[in-house]
Amino acid sequence: MTDENRTFLLFPDDGDDLTEWDEASDLTIQNEQLEEILSEERALELERELEQDENPRDYTVELEDEEEEAAPVSEKRLKRQIRAEALARLEDAARTEDDFRYVVSEWDRLDRNRERRERDHENLRGDVPLEYMAVPNPKMIPLYLNLPRYRQLASGNFLDIIFSCPYELHELVASSFISELIRSLTIDQKEVLYYLSIRQYSTIQVGMIRGQTDRNIRKLRKNIHKKLQRAVYDYLLEKQNDCGSLTLRERQFLEEYGLLLKAYGKDAVILRENKSKPRKKKAALGSSKDSE
C-alpha cells in the first residue's frame, strides 16, 4: 500500500460526508438545548403547581359576592377605595426623590401582586418552538392533533386563537399604537385586512367570501394601506424628532414612504404584491435558423 493510499484511508477527501456530519452534529446540539429548555419549563410548572397545593390562595375572598355588589356600601369596596385614595394622596404629596421612590415602590408592589395572581392561573410559554418533537406523519392519532395550532391550544396558550378573528384583530398586536390604529378601522376594512394579512387569502378568495369583485377588494386594500401607512409615518416621524430610537425596518419605511409622499402627495402608498416577473419568450426555430 502506497503512502497516498494510507493518507486517503486516514483522511478521506469526501466533503459531502463532512458536511453531513457537521449538519447532524449541529442538529443534535440544537435538540439537546431545546430539550433542556423544555425540561426547565416543565420543572417550573411543576414547582408552581406544588406551591399552589401547599399554600393555596383563595382569591375569591377579595371579591364581592352578589349581596355585597347589590348593597350601596361594602366593606371590601371601601378598603379598595381607601387604598386607591391613599396612593393618590401619596402621588400628589410627593416632592422629594425619596417620596417618588416610595410611590414607585408601592406601584411595583401592586404589580407584583397582580403578576402573582396571573402566574397562579397560567404558565407562560418559553422560546421552545411548537413544532419541536412533532410527529411528521402520525399513524395512531388524527393529523390535526399534531398541528402547532392545536398544540398551542392544548398547552394553554389560547389567546392567539381566541383573538384570531377580524373583530378582535387589534388584540394580536403588542404595540399599543398599532392596536389602536387597527381598532379605528371600519368593520369592512378589518375583515379585508384579516383575510389578506392573517389568513393569507388572495383577493379573489376574499371577494368570493364577501360577495365582491377582485377589483373592489384590491381598491379597499389600497385604501387600508394608505390610511395605516400615513398614520405610521406620522408616528415614526414624531418619534424620530423626539430623539427616539428606530429599527432598521422603520428607518427604511420612513425613507421609502417619504419619497413617495413627495412624489404623489396624499395618494402615496407602498404596495407589496406577489407578482412574478414575466417570462422571456423563446425565439422561434425559424428565426434562429435564419439568424445563423
UniProtKB/TrEMBL annotation:
Residue spans of biased composition, Basic and acidic residues class: 47-60
Chain positions covered by the region annotation Disordered: 47-74
Biased composition (Acidic residues): 61-70
Name of the protein described by the UniProt record: Uncharacterized protein
Lineage: Bacteria, Bacillati, Bacillota, Clostridia, Eubacteriales
